[in-house]
Amino acid sequence: MTDNSTRDEKIGKLLDTKKYSYAVIAEMVGTTRNAVGGVAFRRRHNVAALGYQPRSYLPEKTALNTR
Fold first, then answer.
1. Is 65 within a domain?
2. For residues 56 and 59, what is the distance between their CA atoms, to the nearest angstrom?
3. Residue 12 resides in a domain
């Protein structure tokens, strides 16, 4: 396993068993709040189970074509 997968497992166990804030979990695991939030989001919204394929991001307006 890679470091991220073991980190994600630790975060997942803490999310499932404890009612800690993302900041507390991040401090315990040694990562950022955004990393904890990302793991929590991916656990709630399992893309593989839903069969959802996100569209690529192509904005209508950019800084180059609005001037």
1. no
2. 9
3. yes
Q: Which of 2, 4, 26 is nearest to 14 (CA)?
A: 26
For the stretch 28-47, pLDDT in tens is: 999 999 999 999 988 887 76
- Count of residues for the chain? 67
Whole-model pTM over 0.70:
no
23: left (phi over 0), alpha (psi -120 to 50) or beta: alpha
* Inside any domain, residue 11: yes
Q: How many CB atoms lie within 10 A of CB 22?
A: 19
Q: Is residue 63 part of a domain?
A: no
Tokens 């069969």 correspond to: 51
Q: Which domain holds residue 25?
A: 3-47
The domain tally of the chain equals 1
3-17 and 33-44 helices, crossing angle to 10°: 70
